[in-house]
Design a protein that fits this description.
globular, 5-stranded antiparallel beta sheet, (S)-2-hydroxyglutarate dehydrogenase activity, FAD-dep_OxRdtase, FAD/NAD(P)-binding domain, oxidoreductase, 8-stranded mixed beta sheet, flavoprotein, alpha+beta
């Protein structure tokens, strides 16, 4: 796709296109009502990345560094407005995930890459370490299982300590035993994403925000994306647009839209039946610690994992603020358009703190009443629901879904942030021709 044509797509806050007579991509969008018009609004592209979250940004950078022309499309006004900006900002070591799973492989590799990237690009980060704690005797075997799994996954430096030693490290902590993970850390996610955007742009990547991919079809062996301005979808009264405003024909397209990845894949005509997994949405709320002069903890403090998450844990941000969360609240009734437009309920009810206090006091008994303030919330795109075993990342190519040039990424929840550079490295190595 010529750069002149691409320039009509990017950097404007009102939609995907600016009026211009210099390229046939910029046409009278309001008059698109027939197949002939749709067929006239076509442009070829090299690599299209759908979704400007941290994984999409890392992938755009990786593809561009390998000499490809990259176009990033996102329905939001800027990058990283979904799960990427609503998480714990933790760099995970690679302990929790089944041996040889994609989560384990990408987390361990991604953590190494991420620390290196942050150091080389002056991204604020700290390798502060983590304590995973057992507060009851029934939890000690689970802690041993986590240690053995981490060692299998190649996580260095893990050691089990008695509660007395853990409490010397963290005087406010109470536990029977703790697993020390010195490789865990924190990162300023926004600074990371901003750096990835800058590097991608320096290599020629073009970003088009307020731009929604609403479907696709196959013509011969060419995958054709249906693209429209986000505002058109917003004004559609809950109905999908009958016709796209633009058809893009890329050589390679990656669906890494996170919360809407499965909804979008289901709108790709020609996908083999039964290969798109179901998505379950788990909302997690965070509360911040108020009235805390000196932070009570210097390390990340994690309980034993729970159904759907890693438990209400302690994180410390780059400014030293203490956060507790996330909890797990399964939500449903999300229609496709809402997922495309990120219309999730991110509010945090102050009353939800009543559920946090008893969970936190299991390991932090001195938590004072009234000291938790509502922070923020995030949504995890999970491939397993309540009481189901956790699922791995899913990366689908043509061999699975049958559409040439398409890569689908499903279930990219934690440790997606830690894994972003490793995921992009894997995709580029496996799928670039």
């Amino acid at each position: 796709m010529p750069k002149q044509a691409l320039e009509c797509l990017l950097r404007n806050s009102k939609g995907i296109l600016q009026s211009s007579s210099s390229t046939r991509i910029c046409i009278r969008w309001k008059n698109l009502s027939t197949k002939a018009h749709i067929e006239g609004a076509r442009e070829r592209a090299d690599c299209v990345v759908i979704g400007a979250g941290v994984v999409g940004l890392a992938l755009a950078r990786e593809l561009a560094l390998r000499g490809r022309e990259v176009l990033v499309l996102d329905s939001a006004p800027t990058f990283g407005t979904g799960t990427s900006s609503r998480n714990s900002e933790v760099i995970h070591a690679g302990i929790y995930y089944p041996h040889r799973s994609l989560k384990a492989i990408f987390c361990v590799r991604g953590r190494e890459m991420l620390y290196k990237y942050c150091s080389e690009h002056d991204i604020p980060h700290k390798q502060i370490g983590k304590l995973i704690v057992a507060t009851g005797s029934s939890e000690v075997p689970k802690l041993n299982d986590l240690m053995n799994r981490g060692i299998q996954n190649g996580v260095d430096g893990l050691r089990m300590i008695e509660g007395s030693e853990a409490e010397r490290m963290e005087p406010e902590l109470r536990c029977l035993k703790a697993l020390v993970s010195p490789l865990s850390g924190i990162v300023d996610t926004h600074s990371l994403m901003l750096s990835l955007v800058g590097e991608a742009e320096n290599e020629g990547t073009i970003f088009s925000y307020n731009t929604t991919v609403i479907g696709a079809h196959l013509e011969g062996n060419k995958f054709c994306l249906h693209v429209s301005e986000t505002k058109q979808l917003e004004n559609s009264n809950g109905k999908f647009l009958l016709h796209p405003e633009l058809v893009l024909i890329p050589e390679l397209v990656v669906n890494c839209t996170g919360l809407s990845a499965t909804a979008l894949a289901n709108r790709f005509d020609g996908v083999r039946s039964g290969v798109i997994p179901s998505t379950y949405y788990a909302r997690g709320c965070y509360f911040t610690l108020s009235n805390a002069g000196i932070p009570p903890f210097n390390h990340l403090i994690y309980p034993i994992p729970e159904d759907g998450g890693l438990g209400v844990h302690v994180t410390v941000d780059m400014d030293g603020q203490i956060k507790f969360g996330p909890d797990v609240e399964w939500i449903g009734g999300i229609d496709d358009i809402s997922s495309f437009l990120n219309r999730f309920d991110y509010s945090v009810c102050a009353n939800r703190a009543t559920r946090f206090y008893p969970e936190i006091r299991k390991y932090y008994p001195n938590l004072e009443d009234g000291s938790l303030e509502p922070g923020y919330s995030g949504i995890r795109p999970k491939l397993s629901g309540p009481q189901q075993s956790p699922c791995d990342f899913v990366i689908q190519g043509e061999d699975t879904h049958g559409l040439p040039g398409l890569i689908n990424l499903f279930g990219i929840e934690s440790p997606g942030l830690t894994s972003c550079l490793a995921i992009s490295e894997h995709i580029a190595a496996r799928f670039l021709r």
